[in-house]
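Exercise 7.
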Amino acid sequence: MDRGRETRRVLTVNGGSSSLKSTVYETAGGAFQRTWTATVQRIGSPAARFRAQGPRGETLEEVETPLADLPAALVRWLDWLRARGALVAIDAVGHRIVHGGSHGDRPQVLTPELRDALGTLVSLDPDHLPGQLAAVRAIDRACPGVLQVGCFDTTFHGTMPDRARHYPLPRALTARGIVRYGFHGLSYESILDALRREDAAAADGRLIVAHLGGGASMTAIADGRSLDTTMGLTPAGGLMMGTRCGDLDPGLLVHLLEADGLTPAALNDLVNHRAGLLGVSETTADMQELLARAADDGRAAEAVALFCYSARKWLGALLAALGGAAQVVFTGGIGEHAPQVRAAICEGLGFAGIRLDPARNAANARVISAVGAPVTVRVMATDEELMIARHTVEVLEAI
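Solution. The predicted structure, written as tokens, is:
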């Protein structure tokens, strides 16, 4: 049989700290067709929302139900698939793994040895890795013997030069892997893939992609390679985010440890769960809610302004690292759906060739830059699940 035309069925698992996206794909000859899809929001709350959709995007079930954690949400989805006979035909399962450390240089089979190695990284990503590794074990129980593949958010940034990857710390720490890894790599791959189909020259040029959502980062890309990014050793660094602080003066953390006697767990809770938009607004981490409240709530307005200012500074820094860019792409929930935020981030960057068309921006158009502007500014949807599926099939076919 021509293996290039053989139909494969893969399940993708994209688990976050409080959400799950999962899709069953059928693929033959390089084409990928979605069959069943699930999204689960508010995992960990008594009213988690589970939605299952069919191949045309039609909603087949939508309910609120208690789901304690990511494995519980995944089991709920697997039971749904099993009831329709859709699990028996799965050839492989691909997982988004946020932190791969030095082990995440490529998509690969999640062997027992690799799982153990990833377990040693939990302190670097306590909000994602434990749940994602537990999801792998949940698949073991539900689909014994099925091949499982790890697709790492860190892989894409393996091309960063040492000057961008290394911290100004003693070399002994660098040798231990205390370096900048970067994240959201699957999203950046997805944007590059889509842009290449739309404008190959643009994809191979100098561009900055801003993935703005509950987690937020930006990456400077040239010739299809990551040259620098805002996140570092952990997903807490870089831009201000929904509940994460982004970069801080390290002396501030030392001060809090000494003055307030914070434990490592309490410090992690502060910088990952109680900071960012939520910490400044004191009400919510949801950008759309903050924008709606900004006119009457000074804390909400300040949170939005601080987010946009942080993002503008990072955009400027990456422009300097690249020596200018021809393209800027906004993606992610905020990047795709918050024109006020995009406008505020790009405000004052005309000197760098970035000028928006207000009407296009307000309409969330595909291209939102002004006619004749030196830098093309785009709004594009990311598709991490498709990238996971492609990598999983590549690994499956190589065995």
